[in-house]
Predict the 3D structure of the following.
Amino acid sequence: MARRTEISAGLLAFRRGAEIEVLLAHPGGPYWARKDDGAWTIPKGLVRPDDLLTGARREFREETGFTAAGPFLALAPVRQKSGKTVHAFAFEGDFDLDGFSSNLFEMEWPPRSGKKVEFPEIDRLGWFGPKLAMQKIIAYQRPFLTELAEKLAATKSPPAVARKEAKSG
């Protein structure tokens, strides 16, 4: 499938405290190992166009080990430079990051070595306040943070908090 016709979907978890914090994921593998600012992302993956929220919830579970519960707030989709469309759904929740676990992917490493090595799809998670989240998140996903902040500011009664702890397997 050409990248411009691919569709990804993911979840943007947030929690309330002194300020709103969002949960971001750092991609695993050797290409991302030394990158930090501008490298973090929402947990997401490829989905079918008729399966956006279900696919986003599945990807969140696979990449974090956590189960997300709604209500979910659809955010406007964004487009990567490659042309891939990325959909996001925000939800309020709080996760103990000590329970984090990610699925693995396999790639040849080092390049042209013929050796296959497994890496976690996500190597770490973090809660970030608004300013630091804007610094950490990959540029094309910044509109998700902006829209979430605008929608939360316009909401008079906060959505119910979905508290889910990590569940293995």
